[in-house]
Automatic annotation (TrEMBL):
This is Helix-turn-helix domain-containing protein. One of its GO terms (molecular function) is DNA binding. Coiled coil: none annotated. InterPro entries: Cro/C1-type_HTH (IPR001387), Lambda_DNA-bd_dom_sf (IPR010982). SMART domains: HTH_XRE. PROSITE patterns: HTH_CROC1. Residues 16-69 form the HTH cro/C1-type domain. Gene3D superfamilies: lambda repressor-like DNA-binding domains.
């Protein structure tokens, strides 16, 4: 796994840890609220790359931040994707010639 991905997951885990503590939740309380075990929360906060996305989604829901996940790669805000699409646009658009289908 690339080092940059590992660092990002560790940061995400730390952010979840901080968010949990700011909300006054223990790891056990958060685990109970999302229907998971204590070890799941510990692994998530440690940045374990094997964590399932639904665990993150459930934690974000408890934090009141689930919308941020759905906006993560919103195609309307995907500047790189939009730029790549714009590069492929034709320079000109011509009207098509009408063809007659006489039978």
């Amino acid at each position: 796994m690339p080092v940059t991905v590992q660092r990002t997951l560790k940061k995400l885990g730390g952010d979840i840890n901080r968010g949990r503590r700011r909300r006054g939740l223990t790891q056990q309380a958060l685990a109970e609220r999302i229907g998971a075990g204590l070890s799941t929360i510990k692994r998530l906060e440690a940045g374990d790359p094997r964590m399932q996305l639904h665990v993150l989604a459930r934690v974000l829901q408890v934090f009141g931040e689930l919308d941020r996940l759905s906006e993560l790669l919103d195609s309307a805000q995907d500047d790189v994707g939009l730029a790549l699409m714009d590069e492929q646009l034709p320079r000109r658009v011509r009207t098509r010639k009408k063809t007659s289908h006489a039978f």
